[in-house]
Each structure stands twice: as structure tokens, then as C-alpha cells.
Write a structure and sequence with these properties.
The chain is an alpha+beta fold and 140 residues long. It has one domain: Nucleoside Triphosphate Pyrophosphohydrolase, CATH 3.90.79.10. The strands form 2 sheets. It has a 4-stranded mixed beta sheet, with helices on both faces. Strands 3-2-7 form a 3-stranded antiparallel beta sheet, with no helix packed on it.
Length: 140
């Protein structure tokens, strides 16, 4: 009989600038998957909605303010990670307030969506990039 998995819910944002580029950040040394590029975001805490968690995480990580109404759900990934099961929810965000800066001094870069296929990212992010490419090419 298999044990019920522990789920880890993570919300992430594809921040899209006025030129259609996507922001990615490099995972810091000392963390799992260090050196890989990822979408900003983080864990959904107990009692939080994914949107509230993403608003909080974007403020903590990038010092920007985002309204929940500016978050457009795109897709999700589901993957076993060690002794947990990751559910990674991706949103598009085109509007925010504040000057974007990394609170943890992480490397940041703005890339065209097609360039995301060529950078090293965590395994769960691959399917997200594909779905994001399709969504940005066909916004409706």
C-alpha cells in the first residue's frame, strides 16, 4: 500500500514587460537546484490562496506590488520531488507597481519567451515554458 504524498503547492509568475520579455531569476547557491533559472514566486502557505501567496512572494523577492486581479492563470506542472509532490502553478502578470529589484541579490534577466527553452531550468518548468509560449503567441 502506497503512502499518501505530501503536496507542495508553489505559485510562480511569468512577469511580462512592455517588449514581451519574461523575467527569470537564478536560484541561489545552497538551495536545491542552485544555478538554474526559474520564474519568481514561492510556496503557498497554509490558509493562503495561490494568488495571495504570489502577491506576497513577488513583494518579498522583487519589491513589487501586484494586484491579484493582474494575475492570469496559465498552466501547472505536477512532479514528484524527493518525499513530496510538487504542484507548480504558473500565472502571467503584465502589471505591477514599484521598481523591480531582487531582495536577495539574485541574478535576474529579461528574455524573449523562445529563449527560455535554451536556459537551464528546473524540470517542472519545461512544460510551463511550452504552455507559456503557446499562450503568449495566442493571447485569446
Amino acid at each position: 500500500m502506497e503512502k499518501n504524498p505530501t503536496y507542495l503547492f508553489v505559485a510562480a509568475a511569468a512577469l511580462v514587460d512592455g517588449n514581451g520579455r519574461i523575467l527569470v531569476q537564478k536560484r541561489p547557491e545552497g538551495k536545491p537546484m542552485a544555478g538554474l533559472w526559474e520564474f519568481p514566486g514561492g510556496k503557498v502557505e497554509t490558509g493562503e490562496t495561490p494568488e495571495a501567496a504570489l502577491v506576497r512572494e513577488l513583494n518579498e523577492e522583487l519589491r513589487i506590488d501586484v494586484a491579484e486581479s493582474s494575475l492570469e492563470p496559465v498552466t501547472f506542472a505536477s512532479e514528484a520531488v524527493e518525499d513530496q509532490h510538487l504542484i507548480l502553478l504558473l500565472y502571467i502578470c503584465r502589471q505591477w507597481c514599484g521598481r523591480l529589484e531582487s531582495a536577495d541579490l539574485l541574478d535576474l534577466q529579461w528574455l524573449p519567451v523562445d529563449a527560455l527553452h535554451a536556459i537551464p531550468m528546473p524540470p517542472a518548468d519545461g512544460p510551463l515554458v511550452h504552455a507559456l509560449s503557446i499562450r503568449l503567441a495566442n493571447p485569446f
